[in-house]
Amino acid sequence: MQAEVRFDHVTCMFGSVIAVDDVTFDIAEGEFFTLLGPSGSGKTTCLRMVAGFQYPTSGHVYIHGKDDTRLPPFERDVNTVFQDYALFPHMSVADNVAYGLMVRGVGKKARRKQAEEMLELVRLGGYGHRRPIELSGGQRQRVALARALINRPRVLLLDEPLGALDQKLREEMQVELKELQREVGITFVFVTHDQTEALSMSDRLAVFNKGRVEQIGTPQEVYDRPLTRFVASFVGASNIVEGPLAERLFGNSQPVSIRPEKIVLSRDGEGIAATIREVNFIGAATRYRIAVDGVEEAALLVTSPNVLTGDNAFAVGTPVRLAWAKGTTQALK
Amino acid sequence: MTGPSVSSPETLPTPSGDAAAGIGRRISRWFYGRPGIFLLLLLLPPLLWLGIVYVGSLFALLLNSFFAIDPFTGMVKYELTLATWKQLFTLANFDIIMRTVTMAACVTVGAAIIGFPLAHYMARYAGPRIKGLLYLAVMLPLWSSYLVRLYAWKLILAKEGIISWIAAHTGLSWLLDALLALPVIGGPSLSVSYIGMFLVFLYIWLPFMILPIEAALERVPRTVTDASADLGARPGMTFRKVILPLAFPGVVAGSIFTFSLTLGDYIIPGVVGSSRLFIGQAVYLHQGTAGNLPLAAAFSTVPIVIMAAYLMIAKRLGAFNAL
């Protein structure tokens, strides 16, 4: 199958700083694809290379099979939702949304009609005559979406679009965005540094670190089978077990990742003897820091859900047993 | 009772602090609870200055224009009359007004055309070093005396000046001669033509156009122009539909400076150009030499009226929508 967006050995340098380092991957048509990574990891530069705001130093960017590496943004069949929304402050909401049509020479009447339809789609029907400054952050976000979608681009790029919203609105918009993507059937390329956002929204995600792609896969693959130390610790929390502790738990010193919630604690029974060092109540769960008996210098993080109410947690100093299901651990490179 | 008492008022400091050293603190506390009074105190001097000294004298001036001078005694007669205003709209005086307004309009348009690209470059492309240098280059002329610059230009534009010299040495004398042969705006040499006066005005007021445009462009986020390109607009379209409208308040602010400064100036038309009068010169002559204060007052209301009309039109055009 032909890829909608293809990065082919793309490198991008700013002076002597390598922002994107020999990156190759494909994004399939109709996919919700996330570029996840900390700030400065190269994810936004990659997005800008798809949009055409940045040309790679070397390598090729293909959009729908065509080499668009050095095509200016106004000739690409790609639209962007900017982090700061970048609405035109001197235009009404309707004119903002219709801008892409105006540029293409669509008549005023058709423009107005399509803009209103687009605003309906993002649940802002009747807001067309307002100015961007009169809208809330969430509403501006939707105007930016409507404006970017009106040209029916092949690919929609979203540059941390939810970053400026508060937690509750953010979660609502995550659901809405996902629904919108299903509705319009356009390929979404989504940039974020928020791993929960990436896991909950994406069909597939690419984890960026220092200009390189560390891993690409479905959210489950990336979470359950992290290939590198960075992915294990950036996507969700993880215990990276190595050295003497790995020797004690797994019989060899190769680093292994095990998620805190996969470890089951019991007062007695099967498992590795350990002692509670620290107890931390976090609402839905309790987080423990646990030292395995005999390997005191390394600690393991364990979260166990608070199934019962009341004070059922283990106290500091309690001897416990640790166990985990087969296949919940992952050897790291 | 003998021995020191722990509860004696001399040994225990009161929580509100030492009265003598705490005056500043007490004043601060007093004002902190009464922000209105503090604001009033701060605003009183400028309000007095603007309200009474400035606006008040402006009204006194306006009032003067409704008196007239007695043709026999040459003294101002303090009776309300429209005679002075009638006099203002005689052909000769109307000529002065039209001449000045035309010059001010040309200078404003010229300054906007020359200033915009530089301001655009400074705001959107120049690195911090170059931007600093350009700021310096724009402002540096303002640090030296207006008169020195004016007489320097007189020499530059003179028949024996550097422009004629360059024209002669590059074989472009015919071009200069053709320019000077133009009716009305030409003349015997650049220094006694309207072209020359235009150049001097343009030079003197250009910084007042560049700086506000630069400030307006500085406030246009990069992503907004990116968004325009992203939606398919070529650079020319982005400029017309996004950059220019957003910079327009800056252009209007700059044009208010260049337009009103040209309208009111009475030194440049006296040094460069023909002997025909401009509004500023007319005001100067009528209130000084001729002693006709009412007519001078009537003349000086002209720029005020023109500026008011200008601002109203600018507002109609949506110049301040993006503010």
UniProtKB/TrEMBL annotation, chain A:
One of its GO terms (cellular component) is ATP-binding cassette (ABC) transporter complex. Residues 5-235 form the ABC transporter domain. SMART domains: AAA (SM00382). GO terms for biological process: quaternary ammonium group transport. It comes from Afifella marina DSM 2698. The lineage of its organism: Bacteria, Pseudomonadati, Pseudomonadota, Alphaproteobacteria, Hyphomicrobiales. It comes from the Bacteria. Belongs to the ABC transporter superfamily. One of its GO terms (molecular function) is ATP binding. Keywords: ATP-binding, Nucleotide-binding, Transport. This is Putative spermidine/putrescine transport system ATP-binding protein.
TrEMBL record, chain B:
Belongs to the binding-protein-dependent transport system permease family. CysTW subfamily. One of its GO terms (cellular component) is plasma membrane. The lineage of its organism: Bacteria, Pseudomonadati, Pseudomonadota, Alphaproteobacteria, Hyphomicrobiales. This is Putative spermidine/putrescine transport system permease protein. Residues 97-314 form the ABC transmembrane type-1 domain. Its main location: membrane. InterPro entries: MetI-like (IPR000515), MetI-like_sf (IPR035906). Gene3D superfamilies: MetI-like. Keywords: Cell membrane, Membrane, Transmembrane, Transmembrane helix, Transport.
